[in-house]
Amino acid sequence: MNHSLNYLLRRLGFYFIAAWAALTLNFFIPRLMPGDPAAIIFARFRGKLKPEAMNALRETFGLTDEPLLGQYWSYLKSILQGDLGISIAYFPEPVTSIISSALLWTIFLAGFSLIISFSLGTLLGTIIAWNRSGKLDSFLPPALAFIGAFPYFWLAMVALYIFGFELSWFPLGHAYGNDVTPGFNIPFILSALYHAALPALTMILVSLGGWMLSMRNIMITTLGTDYIAFAHAKGLSSRLIMLRYAARNAILPNFTGFGMALGFVLSGALLTEIIFSYPGQGYLLLQAVRAQDFPLMQGLFMTITFAVLAANWIVDILILFFDPRTRK
Amino acid sequence: MNLKIISYLMPLSLLILFGCENKNKSNKRDGLTVYQEAQISWVRNFNPLSPAGSARWPTSSGIYEPLFIYNSMTGEYVPWLGLDYKWEKGNKVLKMLMRKGVKWSDGEPFSAEDVAFTFNIKRKHRALDTRDSWGYLKEVVAVSDTIVKFEFKRIYVPGFDALATQSIVAKHIWDKIDDPVKFSNPNPVGTGPFTEIIRFDSQLWELGKNPNYWQKGKPHINKLVFPTFPSNEQVTLALLSGNLDWAGAFIPAIDRVFVSKDTEHHKYWFPLTGHTTFLHTNTKDPILSDVRVRKAISYAIDRELVVKVGMYNYTEPAHVSGVSGPMSKWHSPYLDQAENWTTYDPGKANMLLDGAGFIKDETGLRYTTDGHILEFDIIIVSGWSDWIRSAQIVSQNLKNVGITAKVKTYDFGAWISRMQKGDFELAIGWAEKGTTPYALYRGMMSSEYLQPKGEIADVNWHRFGLASADSLFREYEQTSDKNEITEIIYELQHLFIEHAPSLPLFSEASWAECNTKYFSNFPSAENPYATLSPNYPPENLLVLVNVQNR
């Protein structure tokens, strides 16, 4: 047990250093982009704003000529205090409030589709590996690999056009209907589910194959090992062998994959959110980059970084739990 | 396999049931659904003074109102909160007469005090003074309840536009605000036709009409509805499905895509704004500094083709003066004596280039005197497909006269940074806009904004200054006499045509679509009382008060 704690603490130390490195890159990389935010806002008016406006804009956003290193220290300091600054594109809204509302929608949409896709894919992988060369095994892997090979944005747009526009089965965008009031009430929840259905389906459809195939392949290797043969010889039921003996070991690499995917959920739903006008993080990131909104960009990258690190740490704990070898 | 199909169909069938429920639609629609800003979720900000332009449309001209509205279709100022104005003391003092009987939406009376307060709050917080009014103003006071006096520290008549179109805020509300720069004004009190926030959610907000509006019987409609649309594709889909009543979006091949779906109700109107999109020529480039080369490039361009291929024929080839459409009234009467270098004449272009010493070899390429290929880059913002196509046509045209021109695209931030630093040769871009061509010509020829290469120039990207024009600008700024103003504009126009500091490419149009199924009395080519586009505040106020339920 002491050993496990040690392992977790060591991992935590590693994550801490990783977080610091990410925060530092997070600060410097946006500043290497050409142009400055005031100039971009000015240019957005396409000649309708007079050049005299530039000074007013620079003053508003508090854009300083302070050396980068000084700015870097005050940036680290305010992050430690939980202050991510004020957005430029959505001036004068604080970055934290903008991110928090978008974050919820992304976690809802991408998180759910990831969990569904992961569970369904892993389960299907287990089943088709158990009944390998069955009908399901010869059909599903190539079919899903075929779908997964389409460019995602194309698949999503076709789905939106056919099911949303032509057939009107699904809404054309947004996270909930305009006739419901956000809050904890049944119509709102139903509407949110209905609006998430098509984007979630497209996301599940393209990612399902990956989970299924990796689970199937490891499962097949596991099924060939001696301890499975021994379990069969002992006369254990096939269900028990399939789930408790084989799948439990085969799922470990998939868990690591899940941890990584959980992090990418926060940024990776970008295309989905743009195509389905879904008000999440991904679209916000695009806006922030377009407007050179440094504070918002930093805030978003930070949430993504922290989410990846946190997810990986949780996976570390899970693996500790599932795999006794790490506990020795 | 069967299991999978069923597991998919189950939620599907449920969803279809839900979907049908939403389908009941009547012929009446209470709220006018508008698209003006591309957003994915709304942020509650109704600060009309915010310099970042981050307030929701129509805060500055809908919730709040200006003193006068410049109508770009007629070229006249429409009296609004202000009724009349007068220049005094050799244009050092401007007096404006305010309308009586105007009330704020909370019932308090509006007066000249509010106007003076609005300008003085900008004086105190310079970040709010985006039009640098206090660069020429000395003092703004309310002489009486209805008269505001603007005193100038230097005579600057063109400043009238910034003063007249300033949105006015209520003194009794704003004098309690400590930091108006960061104030998001969540519950606005304005004089405009729509002031009541009925609902504000991240995806949809609704703006109801002002119970105390000073124009009796107006606005005709009860409320405005703003769903979020993050992209042009979403706007197009919403327009097609009839979920959007008024939009200001660029839609390619609009007759086929939009109008043909419902020819009776699906309308658009893309009037010329009077302004021009330019092919900017960096005059600090050693080759482009030669006016013969600039004019040769201009002669070589087949603008008809650029407009057809690049702009879906939505606009027309540029006029050599750089102004067109509703601004054509400023065209000089002596234009027929001036050189018309925006006509398509490759022969003339070849002649000018030969004369400038750029000789063609047997393959048809031209070379500089020191043996280099005559080549330029045309820089465009990546993703701005209409301009990219236009640039490709220009590139083809230039090839025909022996000039190699490559189209290069940059991300917006990188593009604007290159333009401002003068780090380009040719580029498609906009130019300064104003109520007279003065703003354009000042941006084109004034040494005031001239910066050396590498320094940031907010305007005059092509880096051209002309002393004889500078003195004309000074004269223009001193006079409020209509005839004198016209004479100066003519002179500036002839200077522009003589020196060709940058090349007008095509006229600018404003994008606007409307659906007349539920609402009527939108501006149109037959009824041009204002431009239809919501993108030109404060002119959009004229539309807001005139649109009616069908």
Give an account of the 3D structure:
The complex is a heterodimer of chains A (328) and B (550). Chain A is 76% helix and 0% strand. Chain A is mainly α. In chain A, helix 5 packs antiparallel against helix 10. Chain A is globular. Chain B is α+β, with helices and mostly antiparallel strands. Chain B folds into three domains: 29-62 and 185-271 and 510-549, 3-Layer(aba) Sandwich (D-Maltodextrin-Binding Protein, domain 2), CATH 3.40.190; 68-174, Dipeptide-binding Protein, Domain 1 (Dipeptide-binding Protein, domain 1, Alpha-Beta Complex), CATH 3.90.76; 273-508, Dipeptide-binding Protein, Domain 3 (Dipeptide-binding Protein, domain 3), CATH 3.10.105. Helix content of chain B is 29%, strand content 19%. A seven-stranded mixed sheet of chain B has the order 8-9-10-1-11-20-12, with helices on one face. Residues 1-25 of chain B have low confidence and may be disordered.
Count of the separate structural domains of chain B: 3
Average residue pLDDT of chain B: 91
Number of strand segments of chain B: 22
* Major sheet strand order of chain B: 8-9-10-1-11-20-12
The N- to C-terminal Cα distance of chain B equals: 53 Å
The CATH homologous superfamily of the largest domain in chain B is termed Dipeptide-binding Protein, Domain 3
CATH 4th-level superfamily of the largest domain in chain A: MetI-like
Report the CATH topology name of the largest domain in chain B: Dipeptide-binding Protein, domain 3
* DSSP E strands of chain A, number: 0
Biggest sheet features of chain A: none
In CATH's first tier, which class of the largest domain in chain A applies?
Mainly Alpha
Name the overall outline of chain B.
globular
Radius of gyration of chain A: 24 Å
Order of helices and strands of chain A: HHHHHHHHHHHHH
In percent, how helical is the residue content of chain A?
A: over 70%
How far the N terminus sits from the C terminus of chain A, by CA atoms, comes to: 8 Å
Main interface pair? A-B, 69 and 65 residues
Number of domains of chain A: 2
Classify the fold: give the CATH topology of the largest domain in chain A: MetI-like fold
Number of helical runs of chain B?
Answer: 16
